[in-house]
Amino acid sequence: MIKKVRPHLSQNEALLFERSSPGKRAYQLPELDVPEVDARAALGAENVRSEIAGFPEVSEVEAIRHFTRLSTWNYAIDHGMYPLGSCTMKYNPRINELVARIDGLAWAHPYQPEALSQGCMDVMAKVEAALAEITGMDAVTLQPAAGAHGELTGILLIRALLEKRGNPRQKILIPDSAHGTNPATAAIAGYAVENIKSSETGALDVGALEQLVNEDVAALMVTNPNTLGVFEHNIIQAAEILHRKGALLYMDGANMNALVGIARPGDFGVDVMHLNLHKTFSTPHGGGGPGAGPVAVKKQLEPFLPIPRIRRAARKYIYDYNRKQSIGRVRAYYGNFGVLVRALAYILAHGGPGLRNATVDAVLNAVYIRKKLEPFYDLPYPAPNLHEVVFSDKRQTARGVHTGDLAKRLIDYGFHPYTVSFPLIVHGALMIEPTETEGKLEIDQFVEAMISIAGEVETDPQLVKNAPHGTRTSRVDEVTAARKPILRWKPE
Amino acid sequence: MRYLPKSDSERREMLDTCGVTSADELFAHLPDAVRLNRPLALDPGISEYEIVDYFKKRAAQNANGYASFLGAGVYQHYRPVLVDTVVSRGEFLTSYTPYQAEISQGTLTTIFEFQTMLCQLTGMDVANASMYDGSTAVPEAAMMAVRATGKGRVMVARSVHPEYREVLRTYARHQGMPIHEFGYLEDRGTIDLEDLAHHIDPLTAAVIVQSPNFFGVIDQVKAAAEIAHKHGALLIMVFTEAVSLGILEPPADADIVAGELQSFAISPCYGGPFAGVIATKEKFMRQLPGRLVGQTTDSRGNRAFCLTLSTREQHIRREKATSNICTNQALIALMATVFMTVYGKRGLRELAQQNLSKAHYLATRSQPRFSGPFFNEFVTRVEGQSPAELNKALLKTKIIGGLPLAKHYPELSDCMLLCATEMSTRESMDLLATALAATKPVEVHA
Amino acid sequence: MYPENFRYTKEHEWVLVEGDSATIGITQHAQEELGDIVYVDLPKAGAQIEQGKSLGSVESVKAVSDVYSPLSGEVTEVNATLAEKPESLNQDPHGAAWLVKVKLSNPGEIQSLMTASDYSAYVGAEK
Hints:
The structure holds three protein chains of three kinds. By secondary structure, chain A is of the alpha/beta class. Chain A has three domains: 16-71, no CATH class; 95-348, Aspartate Aminotransferase, domain 2 (3-Layer(aba) Sandwich); 362-478, Alpha-Beta Complex (Aspartate Aminotransferase, domain 1), CATH 3.90.1150. Chain A has helices at residues 16-19, 39-43, 60-71, 94-100, 103-106, 118-135, 147-164, 181-188, 206-212, 235-244, 337-373, 394-397, 403-412, 440-459, 461-465, 478-483; strands spanning 139-141, 171-175, 192-196, 217-223, 248-252, 272-274, 295-297, 309-313, 316-320, 389-392, 419-420, 429-432. Chain A has a seven-stranded mixed sheet with strand order 1-7-6-5-4-2-3, with helices on both faces. In chain A, α8 links the parallel β2 and β3 (192-196). In chain A, α4 (94-100) runs antiparallel to α11 (337-373). Chain A is globular and about 75 Å long. Chain B has two domains: 67-78 and 346-439, Aspartate Aminotransferase, domain 1; 81-338, Type I PLP-dependent aspartate aminotransferase-like (Major domain) (Aspartate Aminotransferase, domain 2). A seven-stranded mixed sheet of chain B has the order 2-8-7-6-5-3-4, sandwiched between helices. A three-stranded antiparallel sheet of chain B has the order 11-14-13, with no helix packed on it. In chain B, α6 (134-149) crosses α7 (162-172). At the A-C interface, α16 of A face loops of C.
């Protein structure tokens, strides 16, 4: 089998400020076609700055080399697999980049006349419709800029509905297996968080839920499949328990990659959910963002959606601001339109049947990995998994090796680590999500690497504990970085 | 399908390993009641060429080839070619959040440079790795001030972008954070300091002022800061036009700066994705929301960068986090970083100078409504017809006029907000000025 | 390992009572669990603290732990060295790296705390 990693000649590169010297330039502006204005006269001398001290001055060649060299120090999907659980690191189709840059879309100003924005509004309307169909919900808002932003929007919608019914209630129930954004969001929305422990099978404990749900509970925030990659088989029952007491079911859509075309949250009792377009819908992570976090709702929440809403009237799209019950805006303008374009391109490329096939391949890859690695890594929860699988480092800790070490050693084999130490309900978790993007060769290389590392733990644990060995940068001192934060360059 | 790299025979092999004969069996454990028993009601997949065609048609239904004088928080600036060259590299475009520092030094280094340059521009000690955008950076900054002061009330100027104020209200509503708006001076267009001084109280955590403000006017940040500090409140300065930082004195008296970086080579893109930033003084560092990159060393003693002060964030602090934010706008921030690199110290100044000259040229021919100093935007009165009517007429000459202010400022319903940047041509500005002058009952010439 | 003259809480804080004032810190067990300490968040002198309520927190790179006060009272002194050298909490948690000194409002509360041998047994059992 071809090995993924070989020693690579990498370049050193300084910071921009260290390459800078006065007079170097990478820009040229056209000549002014109007008279030059004296800044001090126009603005008032006290408002005009002296130079931007320390700001770099480099030439175009240096600029290109600087960023190119830096880029070669990154791992990326274009290099190989990211088995990161619940991140859904799938291929970022390049056609998406091309269409997002078409002038009429890329240069559109959000305040240009509606009559001259019909193309943008059509794209947004199409995305809303497609996401509603995929999720089985009734209405969608595209305003939220990211998943956490969508969560906040969703919880504010819940609050608005409950307020209208007379009592916004005080608590949100969150499973102990949940992503950190869930409780953080609940707190910002003014709700207290109550943790609900998972059952011993790692699933949502409907018995516990029954006990906890009362008139003080606004909602349960659930991820389905959960962060173990397991479908919550009690979800319909959970929804009924909540609804009976006037509470709502919020679903974190981070794991939608297991469900598209197979099951729809709207069909199993979800009232409101967010999607992560940068996960399920292939928009690029770009080193940490941008994303988009559309929120899909059932009919009863529709009146509260952020304004404006897109409506069709007399064969045109218009913006409807006349919505008295709306929670207001969660951001300026309409949404991360550029991300929506990319998501729509992805949906168009796959089409209905294609989206389902992608889900099937994603699940196939994860189940295959589980089967191959089960003999070597402890599987804490035996339930059937979907698009991701969670192991623990239990067998390896006997030799003093932890999940973080295993993850670092995986880098030496040419892979990005899986998600380490999450979910919190598994001690020493290894959370692996291959996505449908990985072919059999890549998956087999990954499996072989993991098996090899398990062997190294037995024969040479120090090798694993001190990994990575082959990277340009070895393990960084995060402790000093936190004790003595240096958050910017300063001249000597 | 071209994005799915398995052949049928490979699938069969893998299914076999999984102990099933068909892919459907992988989902057999799902309860029947949740299964979708029909195909998704979406058209079948289309080819690359058809996708391009589809979006070109949509683009054709938008404004194309118009000269636009819209600003109001989203600005037209040249995007240096290098920006897309750099961000299109797969190592940047398709990489993940840099949690694994050893294989993310590219991203981490550029973010460190970004943080540095934002400090240099704003005069603050520390800047984060970006927020979603300027409009959400404002409530996040307000929440920061609340944490830092232990007080709960926030005052915001009406001359702050109206949609930013709406977002602030949405966030504040459920946190017991009362918001009080104070006004602006009818003649100058700057904040009404008396109104501020009259309504500030010991419970105020923050005073939020924008400069240049929504009307384009350079506002009284220093004076507002004095009033704020006297009452134990922090001064939050907001900016929407980042290019202004190339020429305007940085707000040394502000405690927190929250702004929008769209002007730095981020396409207007119908309103997003953009990148916001929050920068602050060293003493508030631990209250900053969002990601932070710090300098450190690796085990061989070489300089390296990593995400740091993570205990502020949601994945560790959960409900006690400084924010729920997870994403930073890394790729968008990288566009800004490349832009700042291309222009550099002198270029950003020259760019700002050009913007100043263009807008002031337009202003000499169209009479600013406010007397306060302005950068590249100003308000003008439209006479003889409504701003909306004038804009309708202008469209016929392929000009998109300024933003009518009636919607958010009923007292300025006869006015529009004009923006001119380095991309505005003398020719189009002359056309606009002529059209404006033609509506006035008495002609006014420079 | 655990000084006889200290008293201990289930949340791994220790307190040394001297008359109506006391010194509070976190135990050896606590700093081991946290790993390398990077930051300590403490109240200011004059702050009122309450038995069982959080008085601040201790951070490692990847975790934050609240510090719960063993006794109620008013903070009289805060250990200034922890700001500069948080690592001293790893080195000497029972000695030089005390967190705060307190003037007690209810010395009787000490009855509810564990002795050194109780605490040793408790952390032994926890493992």
